[in-house]
Amino acid sequence: PPPPPPPPRRRTTRIQKRNTEAILEAALEVFSTHGFRGATLDQIADHAGLSKPNLLYYFPSKEAMHVAVLTRLLSTWLDPLRAMDPSGDPQAEIMAYVRRKLELSRDFPRESRLFANEILQGAPRLTEVIGGELKALVDEKAEVIRGWSAQGRIAPVHPHHLIFSVWALTQHYADFDMQVRSVLGPVEGQDPYPEAGRFLDHLYQRLLAPKG
């Protein structure tokens, strides 16, 4: 006789979806504030408004929650670089990438700090992604930038270090938010992003302008 059909998959209920989202939001808040090592299940449960046993019903461990948060983050984090169009105008495409990365820092500061904390700890839960998907994407776009430089459409630049500089100059505003706002003072420091955008536009336009 043919094997019996597999049991039907249980549908996720509305309450389960809501609790899962509450847990991931709480985990993002706690991990971005305290790092993986400093975060506790009790803190996450408290932020989520759930009991610790209920928390562990959805995610079996702190590490499982951390991986789930990072997995969601990475898709968002890589999208701006994926959007760089090889057939577009080189300066416009790179400038758009800079602006998108600055907007990510403005709109997702906790995610930026979470990613930075993971890297500072040696990226134990991201090693495969960084050496795989992230590296492949950066290498692909680096070849595009190298081709633009070879064609004289932008100034000669080291493509990987150009991308690193964009990361450093945009994510700084999220990762060091308190320092940025304190140094700028109560007026300009209330919203540093408009002036930061103008400064980065000017900086990269000067850097990328073809020689002669």
Q: Sheet with the most strands?
A: none
Average pLDDT, all residues: 90
Roughly how many Å apart are the termini?
A: 79 Å
**CATH architecture level-2 label of the largest domain:** Orthogonal Bundle
Radius of gyration, taken over Cα atoms and rounded to an integer in Å: 21 Å
Write structural notes for this entry:
The chain has 2 domains: 11-60, Orthogonal Bundle (Arc Repressor Mutant, subunit A), CATH 1.10.10; 70-208, Tetracycline Repressor, domain 2, CATH 1.10.357. The protein contains 10 helices and no strands. It has helices at residues 14-38, 41-48, 52-58, 62-82, 90-107, 109-120, 127-150, 159-175, 177-184, 193-208. Helix 1 runs antiparallel to helix 2 and helix 5 (90-107) packs parallel to helix 8.
Topology record:
Layout: H1 14-38, H2 41-48, H3 52-58, H4 62-82, H5 90-107, H6 109-120, H7 127-150, H8 159-175, H9 177-184, H10 193-208
Helix pairs in contact: 1-2, 1-4, 1-6, 5-8, 5-10, 6-8
Feature tags:
mainly alpha, Arc Repressor Mutant, subunit A, Tetracycline Repressor, domain 2, 10 helices, 0% strand, globular
